Amino acid sequence: SQTIHQWPATLVQPVGSPLSLECTVEGTSNPNLYWYRQAAGRGLQLLFYSVGIGQISSEVPQNLSASRPQDRQFILSSKKLLLSDSGFYLCAWEASGGAKNIQYFGAGTRLSVL
Amino acid sequence: QKEVEQDPGPLSVPEGAIVSLNCTYSNSAFQYFMWYRQYSRKGPELLMYTYSSGNKEDGRFTAQVDKSSKYISLFIRDSQPSDSATYLCAMSASDYKLSFGAGTTVTVRA
């Protein structure tokens, strides 16, 4: 069966520090991968998605970037965090060529920028 | 106007009651409809998936899609305290992108 791992679960970082959040998927090959940010009471905002190694599409211009160095690894980064980067970050995967648009989420990372 | 509207609640019901949740949307191209359940400080988990219009039942959960009215619903029968969570509707057209509602927080009182 497929599983998705996200770490860390919680992170507290000072303003101006770098960020690296990692997401890995097991049990599937060539998944589509997604990074979302969830703000309280505002649903999920798509940040990045990837259909393959090295292929990244950005949905919202911002202080963040994403990379996909391996088939089942997706990384969210920032060189210098802003206060506004605080939030709940979720990684999701979707089977490419499978049932349409079903995305499965990780447990999330709660980021606090102070 | 948001693409997907969902009443944020909160909704509080006694154990055993029927919970009714709904979302409206504006994009007539949407044809894939999902409900996710999200417990506090956890990631969303897929609850129901429906393609196009119609009803789908899974145990105590029933999902309904009315494309003519651009309206989807989720019903939870015989609600349990373990159903206390935030419920997110999500939908998409034929591309990769899911559009989410803001989520409805439900509390089932024992």
Structural account:
Chain A is mainly beta and 114 residues long. Chain A has no helices and 11 strands. Chain A has strands spanning 3-7, 10-13, 19-26, 32-38, 44-52, 55-58, 65-70, 73-78, 87-94, 104-105, 109-113. In chain A, the strands form 2 sheets. In chain A, strands 2, 4, 5, 6, 9, 10 and 11 form a 7-stranded mixed beta sheet that branches. A 4-stranded antiparallel beta sheet of chain A has the order 1-3-8-7, with no helix packed on it. In chain A, strand 5 and strand 6 form a beta hairpin. Chain A is globular, with a radius of gyration of 13 Å. Chain A starts with a strand and ends with a strand. With 110 residues, chain B is mainly beta. Helices cover 0% and strands 55% of the residues of chain B. Chain B contains no helices and 11 strands. In chain B, strands 2, 4, 5, 9, 10 and 11 form a 6-stranded mixed beta sheet that branches. In chain B, strands 1-3-8-7-6 form a 5-stranded antiparallel beta sheet, with no helix packed on it. In chain B, strand 7 and strand 8 form a beta hairpin. Chain B starts with a strand and ends with a strand. The mean pLDDT of chain B is 93.
